[in-house]
UniProtKB/TrEMBL annotation:
<dbReference type="InterPro" id="IPR001789">
    <property type="entry name" value="Sig_transdc_resp-reg_receiver"/>
</dbReference>
<dbReference type="InterPro" id="IPR007492">
    <property type="entry name" value="LytTR_DNA-bd_dom"/>
</dbReference>
<protein>
    <submittedName>
        <fullName>Two component transcriptional regulator, LytTR family protein</fullName>
    </submittedName>
</protein>
<dbReference type="GO" id="GO:0003677">
    <property type="term" value="F:DNA binding"/>
</dbReference>
<dbReference type="InterPro" id="IPR046947">
    <property type="entry name" value="LytR-like"/>
</dbReference>
<dbReference type="Pfam" id="PF04397">
    <property type="entry name" value="LytTR"/>
</dbReference>
<feature type="domain" description="Response regulatory">
    <location>
        <begin position="3"/>
        <end position="114"/>
    </location>
</feature>
<dbReference type="Pfam" id="PF00072">
    <property type="entry name" value="Response_reg"/>
</dbReference>
<dbReference type="GO" id="GO:0000156">
    <property type="term" value="F:phosphorelay response regulator activity"/>
</dbReference>
<keyword id="KW-0597">Phosphoprotein</keyword>
<dbReference type="InterPro" id="IPR011006">
    <property type="entry name" value="CheY-like_superfamily"/>
</dbReference>
<feature type="modified residue" description="4-aspartylphosphate">
    <location>
        <position position="54"/>
    </location>
</feature>
<feature type="domain" description="HTH LytTR-type">
    <location>
        <begin position="129"/>
        <end position="233"/>
    </location>
</feature>
Length: 233
């Protein structure tokens, strides 16, 4: 089952989409929102597996909302505006549907949505990832990766003296990582906690991590609170 939210200021549009989704029993609608503020609160509280998201909403632009979120679920945009498509794919976007939504296009978009993370097995520290970087190939164990960084829709892995690009989003990789080992420091970074050598207070109430090897990673203010709890500060 894929738990989904619908965010659209049009009651009719929400009703029509919900009606179409009845033909897709793998989708469970767990909430609806009609403006930016209620959408942000609902996304944070419900932690959906999938977001159906209109762009032009009361209270602001949905793309601005996404920039504020720590964790962005997979998104199917549902909008009447073509001009945001390029920008939309800078986020965790599955598809971009123009209204009126055709059932065939909706079905194709849903076919791209993966099984939610928590229903897949987590990778272990001994699990290996195959990475190709130009002419070079790596088979790297998770325990050897000290940090992962978001680069658009891709991710850069840091291990040893190497930093190849993996053609998967940081959010998608995070779904398979053990949260007790790999910590989401911010929208940009996931850190292997076994490589943290030093923690210090940083600007705006956040923290900064110094990793073995000298790499420094800033932790967002929100995630700093989570980290303090994890490490029993």
């Amino acid at each position: 089952m894929i738990r989904a939210l619908i965010v659209d200021d049009s009651e009719l549009a929400r009703f029509e989409l919900e009606h179409q989704l009845r033909s897709h029993p793998q989708i469970q609608i767990v909430g609806q929102a009609d403006d930016i503020h209620s959408a942000e609160a609902l996304i944070e509280s419900a932690a959906p597996d999938l977001l159906f998201l209109d762009i032009d909403l009361p209270g602001g632009n949905a793309l601005q909302l996404l920039e504020r979120l720590e964790h962005i679920p997979p998104i199917i945009f549902t909008t009447a505006f073509e001009q945001y498509a390029l920008k939309a794919f800078e986020f965790n976007t599955v598809d971009y549907l123009l209204k009126p939504i055709q059932p065939e296009r909706l079905a194709k978009a849903l076919a791209k949505v993966d099984v939610p993370a928590e229903r897949q097995s987590l990778l272990t520290p001994e699990s290996q990832i195959f990475v190709k970087d130009g002419e070079r190939c790596f088979l790297v164990k998770l325990k050897d990766i000290r940090c992962l960084e978001a680069v658009g829709n891709y991710s850069q892995l840091y291990f040893g003296a190497h930093s190849p690009l993996l053609y998967r989003s940081l959010n998608k990789i995070e779904e398979r990582l053990d949260p007790n080992v790999f910590f989401r420091a911010s929208r940009q970074h996931i850190v292997n906690l076994s490589y943290v050598e030093h923690v210090e207070p940083w600007s705006n109430g956040g923290l900064r991590l110094k990793l073995k090897g000298g790499q420094e990673i800033e932790v967002s203010r929100r995630q700093s609170g989570v980290l303090k709890q994890m490490l029993s500060f």
